[in-house]
Amino acid sequence: MSRTTNKFSLFDFCKKQAGKMEIYGEETLDEEGNIIPFIEQAALITHYLQLDRKGVILPYRDKAEDILNLWYEFIRGEKSEKKSYKGMVADSANAFQQYLFPDLFQAPFPGPKNPKFKFIDLFAGIGGFRMAFQNLGGECVFSSEWDEQAKRTYYENYGDVPFGDITKESTKNKIPKDFDILCAGFPCQAFSLAGKRRGFAETRGTLFFDVAEILRRHQPKAFFLENVKGLAIHDKGKTLETILNTLDEVGYVVPDPQILNAMHYGVPQHRERIYIVGFRKDLGIKKEDFVYPERHKDIPCWLDVREKEPVPAKYYLSETYVETLRRHRARHEAAGHGFGYKIIDDNAVANAIVCGGMGRECNLVLDFRQTDLTPTTNIKGEINKEGIRKMTPREWARLQGYPDNFKIVVADASAYKQFGNSVAVPAIQATAEQLLKTLNDYGIIRK
Length: 447
Prior knowledge:
This protein is an alpha/beta fold. The chain has helices spanning 11-14, 38-51, 61-76, 85-100, 128-135, 148-158, 169-172, 207-218, 238-249, 319-334, 357-361, 393-399, 412-421, 425-441, and strands spanning 117-122, 138-143, 181-184, 222-228, 252-253, 258-261, 269-270, 272-280, 343-344, 350-351, 364-366, 388-389. The chain folds into three domains: 11-106, no CATH class; 117-296 and 423-441, Vaccinia Virus protein VP39 (Rossmann fold, 3-Layer(aba) Sandwich); 308-391, no CATH class.
């Protein structure tokens, strides 16, 4: 075992210090004899600490306990006489709270004390699916995400470090056998459509195949998938046909997918996404038994999510940048294109927030409340006097339906990426409620 320090918190990972940590020994070797990376060790331990005490049967329980004992020795500088974490807690709960996991059980969005069902969170991002399903009484028993910045945000808010690459068999093997619902906002990839059947075999090489494989192996009662609306027409509809045939082949009844707009479910953002839900065939649920949620009659506007106080000058565009955007839009208008920056009216709905600069440039706003326009970052020229600014990460969080106590622990660039990639929580929750209602109607999961 290598030891680089004698006192640290798991939040060292969230402060970009995990790369300096080296905790390894016999206990940290995987089945093939390779060292389990630090962050995967953290995933094992945090999932174990959150779930074992709730009686969830974990396939990695022994490995997590072994690594936890090793971490105990590393932190305390002494070997534990106990054989398990439970013994060590009785021995030194305060030491664990102080030295190793001071914030683990203080995350703002813990699982429910008396969960009504269990779900897994694939391609988890920052936990939009988890937020929605926890609000409805669900317990997340597995999460997976490969972006390390997103893992930081996820851990801060839920107390779990997600496992890594779900395409790896070693990651799939960490999924508990017993869970009720699979959730996944899987990335859209090109599909091979060489054959005629367009079923399970033809999704190999795509990330959707990993979702389908987990469904085939575990046979949860239901699933909920989300993707960009373009999936519906990709390759003239053949991609969606392949997905639906695959879901049928692995044992699920799938009501017709629908494209829902987040602005109809409580957030002022024009965000259209395709939702796909399904139920295991042997449950007897028919396609027509599930109904997508009705639209809200009232649609909020941008002012409903705007920061209450003036935002820092760094969010205001420079005069040079504004002029560049105007020239860019003029060129596209001359060519007959509709590309270019957009300023959202106070009483209007924001455009979809997406990754990349255009996600922010299509959602500029006018805000004259900041009077000190002294540049605080390196910009070309002065700050514009027209009140033009980009939205803040917190405003993007609100556009996606995250509550204000959701922690933003990364730099702005990463925060914009994370919220741009996220699902819209209220739309997910409204659909999830309908999914649970259908299961409840059949006496399968009680609401």
